Amino acid sequence: MYVAVKGGEAAILATHDLVAEARRGDESVPEIAVAQIREQMGLACGRVMNEGSLYDPDLAALALKQAQGDAIEAAFLMRAYRTTLPRFGSSEPLDTAKMAIRRRVSATYKDLPGGQVLGPTYDYTHRLFDFALMDEAAPGEVQARPAAQPLDASMPRVPDILGAEGLMEEEAPPEGDPRPFDLTREPVSFPAERDVRLQAMARGDEGFLLGLGYSVQRGFGNSHPFVGEVRVGEVCVEFVPEELGFAVDLGEITLTECQMVNQFAGSKDVPPQFTRGYGLSFGHSERKAMSMSLVDRALKAREFGEAATYPAQQDEFVLYHSDNVEAAGFVEHLKLPHYVDFQGELELIRRIRRERQERQDKHADQANEALPEAAE
């Protein structure tokens, strides 16, 4: 942890007041409420919850307000608060097959069992400004919408459909179903197992993972996957208290799940089949879940006997550099005082230049002394 020198304490305290003033902005404009951010900027809250490793829409909204909309600073606030919370145990594994669907699309089946559910998405918008949003609507004014149609009770996941035909890579818990690794409490070693990789990506920077996911499709991974399924909805969280011995429903959380279908030519031990990349994220976070699933498959290269030659296939590169809070801290610490270090570098450069000039002068003198002899 880098901290500012104590000599600037008065200036630092003054910046706190300036930050509060900048955060508030023009006082003639009504102050935005946390509830407004939570309800009307849900996608931003979802990103902060993911990268902050804490599911709490209210705190995510507060973090965004406090950080003036800076998603990385807001995630930092969430992580810092998370470290103060007591841990009572681990929940039961979430069953996304029983998700209360709000959105569900597949690029692999047109007539998907259970149907396609477009739900709320920007996929089909024209990306034109809606200037009507600049007008303040009257309180309580809500645009009428058509009544929602009931969804099918059964919506099997696409990889499960392919798996029933033996065409999809099988996935099963490790022998004994051990507790997953917790990278917030234990040091990471390499090569990292898949549970570690998925944890790191779940709280990794969305933009960084998006770039890596893009890279594997355009020449740095030779991958052209298919979206098996993206689903968004609510899932129940259950916990088994020791004193009770049975599961208790703690409530629902909103999740986005993506399962990417990839080709695999097979090997001497495994027949040709599809393999999967997996992404799971808090809130409505399709881009994050899709990017995560692309990189997840890339990181499985060694498991399938594929050469790991590209950045997205290197687990150490991905895991160490996808953490935006860590990256921001290391980059931004350069703003803190480095006077002694710089003076050392400055003195070194001056000495090297001085010695270089002395050598040049010496060579020049020797050359001048040799000129009369050459003339004779």
Your description of this structure?
This protein has 376 residues and is α+β, with helices and mostly antiparallel strands. The chain has two domains: 6-82, no CATH class; 96-121 and 151-172 and 180-322, no CATH class. It has twelve helices and four strands. The chain has helices at 9-24, 34-40, 42-52, 57-66, 71-82, 158-164, 194-202, 206-215, 286-299, 315-321, 324-332, 339-375; strands at residues 100-105, 226-239, 248-264, 273-282. Strands 1-2-3-4 form a four-stranded antiparallel sheet. A hairpin with an 8-residue loop joins β3 (248-264) and β4 (273-282). α3 crosses α5 (71-82). It is globular and about 100 Å long. The mean pLDDT is 89.
Q: Over the alpha carbons, how many angstroms does the gyration radius reach?
A: 28 Å
Counting H and I runs of at least 4 residues, what is the number of helices?
A: 12
- Spatial gap, N to C terminus: 71 Å
Could you give a short account of the major beta sheet? Answer: 4 strands, antiparallel
Helix content: 25-40%
Low-confidence stretches: none
Structural class of the secondary elements? Answer: alpha+beta
Along the chain, the helix and strand elements come as HHHHHEHHHEEEHHHH
Q: How would you sum up the global shape?
A: globular
- β-strand number: 4
User: What is the number of independent domains?
Assistant: 2
What is the overall pLDDT average? Answer: 89
- The strands making up the biggest β-sheet line up spatially as 1-2-3-4
Task: Give the strand content.
Answer: 5-15%
